[in-house]
Amino acid sequence: MTGNYKTWPMILLLGIITVPLVLMYVYLFVDTVTNSAPGSLVPNEITGEHWRFLWQTLPGRPSIWTATFNTFLFATVTTLIVLSVSSTAGYALSRLNVPFRAFFLAGVMVLHAFPTVTLIIAIFLILQFLGMYNTLIGVILVKASLELPFGIWIMKGFYDTVPWEIEMAGIQDGASRFTVWHKLVLPQVMPAISALGIFSFLAGWSEFILPLVLAPDNKVQVLSVYLAALIADDNNFDMALFKSVGVFYVLPVIVLFLFFQKRLMSIYGGGTKG
Amino acid sequence: MNGSKSLGLMLLTPAIVFVLLFFVAPVILTAVFALTNMSTATGITGGAYQVTQSSLRKLAESYGQAELANTLAETRYTVNEEGLEAIAADGADARLVAEMRAKLGGRSFEKRRDLESAIKTLNSRPRNTRALKALSDTFHRSIVNERFESADAMLRATTNLGVALSADQKSALADATYTGWVWTTQNFTRMIALPDTQRTLINTFIYVFATLAIFNTGFALVLSIATHYMPARPAGIFRAIWLLPRISPPVLYVLLWKWLAWDTGFLSNFLANFGVAPRNWLLDNPTNAWIFIVLINGFVGASMGMLIFSSAIKAIPGSLFHASEVDGASRWQQIRYIILPQLRWPILFITCYQSLSLLTSFEYILLATEGGPGGATEVWALKTYLTALNNYAGNLEYGYGAALALVLVVVGVVLSLAYLKVFDFKTMVRPPRIEQ
User: Fold this and answer.
1) Other C-beta atoms lying within 10 Å of the C-beta of residue B236
2) Which of residues 108-147 of B touch A (CB under 8 A)?
3) Measured CA angle at A162 (ends B305, A197), to 5 deg
């Protein structure tokens, strides 16, 4: 929508405000493969030394591959739980005559906005009671539960858009409600399920506070905690190394995002972060 | 009809289980913990009884039992069966043991010298001084720093020392030496009394309002309106760039800001060209720290408003813009009279939604400044986290942290219920149609 107004003042204005952001992300990638003289911002040599963490374990840290595997496991299992639970619950809340339906929906809506910080102290103690502190399964269950209200809400929204006629037709032909859901409705919301899946995976991959509090041990450490511990260590300050680990960590996110941008947008519109 | 009901419940069950375990239970437990003094020191499962220097001080100061505390603090020498068996096992003369049992049994002495002189009066006393010393050392009894599983065991040990206790003293001693957690309302009185709380409250308001007004709605509006007046390609590029902070993992995103702000980072290097000494812009003073906190959170927050406002602007019929242009409207007039009125609800939504998420988010502040410098950027949620789960003192105060969290729970629930009212909850929960 350009009309007959000049566009360049708008581009210039936004361009200036966007400069810091562009600088940060450009230097993120540049600094991982180059060296610059101290005090200079222009790189003077190309090097691969900042990527040494891939083949040698950094002092006091677990191997990057352990952390990567843990992160992958964490994000994948969380996603599977979120998908299976919210695709069933979302359907029940959208289409079935469940008792206390309005109450459940209000509950989901309130929980959706419910902050981690208010729960995490109690969760920390619950996991200690259950002996699941410092285990991946513990933090996975917690993360999946915290994602659920959002997942249910999103799935409910997508089920709402499926035409009733499809189900009416199925019922007319004598199918049970379960069959109707399973055979007719579920295929209709596949795009939503894949979008929610990718979203949950990314949310799991990026999660920091929960693993930091609930599973900080080297053995079960995920990449976010690994990177944060690396940065917090004052004795080994190496910005280029931090950035290289950061790029390694963010690559799957960028790849997924480039491939599934359109689908994710439908979810980010209802985003979860501040 | 029934099929729908039972299938619905069946499909809902897993979700209900998860939500009960990790939402409802934690919220209830948060309320419970808020009424205790639970901390690392007290443990979470219950405690033991231990006479320590601090519990003795507590006994003297809070229970008015200074005399008892002094008595317990003294090391004592008591001749009892346990000690007698010990010296017999060490190979002491059987006659000496029998004589001590008969003459000194059950007596206790304040100083070793007293015990030694008592032993010297015995007929079968050891001849050399060293044996005498070793002998009396065996009778050394003190309950300081000893740990007892129950109050009874501790009181028995106290009586064995030769200290007689009244009923009052017994209960005072048991209370003062208990190391487990107890019920208390002190968390809330402390919260109100501490000047820290007020400062945290002010910090929280600054944080929420500044970020919300400047970025989450203000700058988001600028972004969506500016990209609206651009050709599709640059508009897409700008939107993609501004989405980067949202899709970047927080740890990495904050690292980028640290690179910008640290004393060896971009800003210091760049400003060195103009003779400004390098410094850590993120932490050198509270004002700069606040600027960065608002920037860090705002750059993330702006994208959500941008997406929602952009799609709302896209929904405005193009003919409106064309018609207004024919009528000679300026760009400002278009924004003022066409776009902004359309955005009233989206702006309200963003304000409501993000005020709540800002109020309870602390991840970026934790990563960037950890509340520093000197607590200047410590907001309520971060304070809760630091109190209960991570602090330098090493004593994690679960009880006080839970009390702080409970305040957020109450504020959060009240706000979200109010927002639900605003956004017409009824239309979202229309009853299912097949059953009608």
Assistant:
1) 12
2) none
3) 55
The predicted-structure confidence for B365-396, as pLDDT tens digits, reads as follows 999 988 878 888 999 999 999 988 887 777 88
**Is B290:A257 a contact under the CB 8 Å cutoff?**
no
Q: How far, rounded to the nearest angstrom, does the alpha carbon of residue B410 sit from its chain's CA centroid?
A: 17
Identify all chain A residues contacting B230, using CB atoms and an 8 Å cutoff: 2, 7, 10-11
From the list A2, A10, A98, the residue facing B9 with the nearest CB is A98
Provide the CATH number for the domain around residue B372.
1.10.3720.10
**CATH architecture of the domain with range A62-268:** Orthogonal Bundle (1.10)
Residue in chain B nearest A10 by alpha carbon: B226
The span from the CA of A10 to the CA of B228, in Å, is 10
Q: Specify the number of domains making up chain B.
A: 2
CB contact under 8 A, A10 and B406: no
User: What are the residue boundaries of the structural domains of chain A, listed by start?
Assistant: 8-47, 62-268
Residue segments in chain A with a per-residue pLDDT below the cut of 50: 1-2, 270-274
Are B283 and B401 within one domain? yes
ipTM of predicted complex? 0.88
Provide the whole-model pTM: 0.81
A125 with B44: Cβ contact below 8 A:
yes
DSSP state of A180: I
What are phi and psi for residue B77, nearest 5 degrees?
Answer: -120, 115
Q: Give me the phi and psi of B183, to 5 degrees please.
A: -75, 140
Which of A117, A177, A179, A263 to substitute to test the interface with B, most B CBs within 10 Å?
A: A117
Q: Does any CB of chain A come closer than 8 Å to the CB of residue B263?
A: no
Distance CA B311, CA B72 (A): 75
Q: In the sheet where B76-78 sits, what is the strand order?
A: B108-109, B76-78, B140-141
How far lies A204's CA from each of A194, A199, A271, in Å? 15, 9, 15
Between the alpha carbon of residue B194 and those of residues B38, B198, B262, B372, the distances in Å are 19, 8, 33, 19
